[in-house]
Amino acid sequence: MSGVLLRKKELRKSHSGASSVRSSTQRTAVRTVATGQIKCSSCGEAQKVGETFIRCVSCPMQAHASCLEMSDEMAACVATYPWQCIECKRCSVCSLGDQEESIIFCDKCDRGFHTHCIGLSEAPQGTWVCQHYCNHPDNLTVTPRRPAPRKTSVVAI
Hints:
Blueprint: H1 3-14, E1 30-32, E2 52-55, E3 62-64, H2 72-78, E4 103-105, E5 112-114
Antiparallel strand pairs: 1-2, 2-3, 4-5
GO molecular function: zinc ion binding
InterPro entries: Znf_FYVE_PHD, Znf_PHD, Znf_PHD-finger, Znf_RING/FYVE/PHD
Pfam families: PHD
């Protein structure tokens, strides 16, 4: 079983007591506020000025990226799509949240996938990066190569 899956299951326990009150406004996955009045669902500490919070788009869960053990790279990636916490996470392929024992999580973007939806018979060991979003050919940036110096056909006599 992937170490990521185990880590995520442990984190599930940390925010399972979150309130069921939902905001009627559209949520963003990552938010930085200046007021410092938002409290972390994991540690209970208030958000500090300029600090980034990760917010679930499906429930009131919000937490420091560090409390969710998210790297800066993952937190930046999470800001680009409607992120869901471990309790709300659905498969990014079939959009179902069932068979949670077979859902694995990308170590780069934190999206969830049923192993069978991505053609795997079991969860990979160690670090795993999804092919659908993070390693998809359309998402890879290619650094253009500098053109080679032109060879001239002029010969000095």
